């Protein structure tokens, strides 16, 4: 199987494919081709990975880049001879569409998360017809989804939310704190506001650090994104954490302040971490405001927009209240949602077991 992930601002596309790949039964052999700057984590997890630089990093014309992409994909498919190609990105590139036409004996699946912004992506939805099927990881906030994917599910197979780690892989609180060198008695707050590459979280970050510095009882952990273009300054008493997958240590945290990408949102809720969700509202991102609003409406966290920093201190103090934490954790636990990565892997395996002979060369 060949898993293809785009670059993105974070690592959501690549992480979802890793979640599926590690659950694929033998003798299936996943190979990755990714545009992500997080390529090394694929190697660290034991998979072979090829790097396909994005046109923005090559500083080249998009038309020429798509020609190059098609040639590269044709070569990869010829060399690795996959029975299934799984693509995770919201925009199927023309180079990929051309490669689909060149390889009629290979199954092509589009792994596509929802929560697109209202009215955005009509040209990409049109390209759905070139794929053999659509695999859609469900979003807990799906009831708030007003995007085009919610209206285009005739060919989609919906699975539960996909996360990389199972609940049994998240370290117990005391073990996680010992591994991170944290005090076992004092509360710990995690700050993970994404890479910051396309949205300015600086005012939020500064106010969080300033407010928590005034609480001597609180320990603060600052997550550094693997794909961040810059290293941010934090006080020396704040623990910097640059690990993947970060969710492995979520048991150490009493509360969090987080961006609201698909992976971060579902990982935090599945781990029951009471969180202030601060959506990335860049127009190119998914509808993180709707996702955070869903959590707020259902008592799974607090939604706070970056321009509402006047609400931040009260939100933090609320989450540091043990009774509030217990209530949020109980509501998260009551969701009872399973990890859709298992079903997604079974779907891929089903296609791998069937020979593809029907697609026309001109597709």
Highest-level CATH class of the largest domain: Alpha Beta
Q: How much is the radius of gyration in Å? A: 21 Å
How much helical structure, as a percent, in the residues? 25-40%
Topology as H/E string? EHEHEHHEHEHEEHEHEEEHEHEHHH
Question: How would you describe what is shown here?
Answer:
The chain is an alpha/beta fold and 363 residues long. Helix 1 crosses helix 13 (341-352) and helix 4 runs parallel beside helix 5 (94-102). It folds into two domains: 2-162 and 340-352, Rossmann fold (3-Layer(aba) Sandwich); 168-334, Rossmann fold, CATH 3.40.50. The protein is built from 13 helices and 13 strands.
Give keywords.
363 residues; alpha/beta; Rossmann fold; 2 domains; 7-stranded parallel β-sheet; 6-stranded parallel β-sheet; 13 helices; 15% strand; elongated
In short:
This protein has 2 domains: 2-162 and 340-352, 3-Layer(aba) Sandwich (Rossmann fold); 168-334, Rossmann fold (3-Layer(aba) Sandwich), CATH 3.40.50. Helices cover 34% and strands 15% of the residues. The chain has helices at 12-21, 39-44, 55-58, 62-80, 94-102, 122-125, 173-180, 202-213, 262-271, 288-297, 312-319, 322-334, 341-352, and strands at 2-5, 31-34, 48-51, 84-88, 107-111, 133-137, 156-159, 188-192, 219-223, 239-241, 255-258, 275-277, 302-303.
Lay out the secondary structure:
Elements: E1 2-5, H1 12-21, E2 31-34, H2 39-44, E3 48-51, H3 55-58, H4 62-80, E4 84-88, H5 94-102, E5 107-111, H6 122-125, E6 133-137, E7 156-159, H7 173-180, E8 188-192, H8 202-213, E9 219-223, E10 239-241, E11 255-258, H9 262-271, E12 275-277, H10 288-297, E13 302-303, H11 312-319, H12 322-334, H13 341-352
Parallel strand pairs: 1-2, 1-4, 2-3, 4-5, 5-6, 6-7, 8-9, 8-11, 9-10, 11-12, 12-13
Helix pairs in contact: 1-13, 4-5
């Amino acid at each position: 199987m060949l898993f293809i992930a785009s670059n993105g601002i974070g690592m959501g596309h690549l992480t979802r494919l890793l979640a599926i790949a590690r659950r694929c039964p033998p003798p299936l052999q996943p190979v990755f081709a990714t545009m992500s700057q997080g390529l090394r984590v694929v190697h660290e997890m034991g998979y072979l990975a090829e790097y396909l630089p994005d046109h923005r990093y090559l500083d080249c014309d998009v038309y020429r880049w798509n020609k190059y992409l098609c040639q590269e994909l044709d070569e990869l498919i010829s060399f690795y001879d996959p029975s299934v190609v799984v693509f995770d990105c919201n925009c199927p590139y023309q180079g990929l569409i051309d490669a689909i036409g060149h390889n009629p004996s290979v199954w092509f699946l589009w792994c596509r998360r929802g929560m697109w912004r209202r009215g955005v992506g009509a040209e990409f939805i049109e390209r759905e017809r070139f794929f053999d099927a659509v695999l859609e990881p469900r979003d807990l906030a799906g009831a708030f989804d007003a995007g085009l994917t919610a209206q285009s599910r005739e060919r989609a197979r919906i699975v539960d939310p996909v996360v990389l780690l199972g609940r049994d892989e998240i370290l117990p609180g005391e073990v996680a704190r010992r591994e991170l060198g944290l005090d076992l008695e004092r509360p710990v707050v995690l700050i993970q506001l994404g890479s910051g590459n396309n949205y300015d979280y600086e005012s939020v970050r500064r106010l969080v650090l300033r407010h928590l510095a005034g609480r001597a009882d609180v320990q603060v952990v600052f997550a550094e994104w693997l794909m961040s273009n810059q290293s941010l300054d934090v006080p020396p008493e704040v623990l910097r954490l640059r690990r993947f997958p970060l969710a492995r240590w979520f048991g150490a945290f009493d509360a969090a302040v987080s961006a609201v990408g698909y992976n971060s949102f579902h990982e935090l809720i599945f781990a029951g971490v009471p969180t202030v969700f601060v959506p990335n509202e860049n127009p190119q991102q998914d509808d993180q405001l709707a996702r955070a609003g869903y959590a707020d409406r259902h008592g799974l966290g607090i939604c706070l927009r970056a321009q509402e920093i006047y609400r931040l201190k009260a939100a933090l103090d609320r989450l540091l209240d043990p009774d509030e934490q217990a209530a949020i954790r109980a509501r998260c636990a009551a969701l009872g949602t399973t990890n859709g990565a298992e079903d997604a892997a079974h779907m891929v395996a089903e296609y791998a077991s069937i020979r593809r002979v029907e697609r026309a060369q001109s597709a």
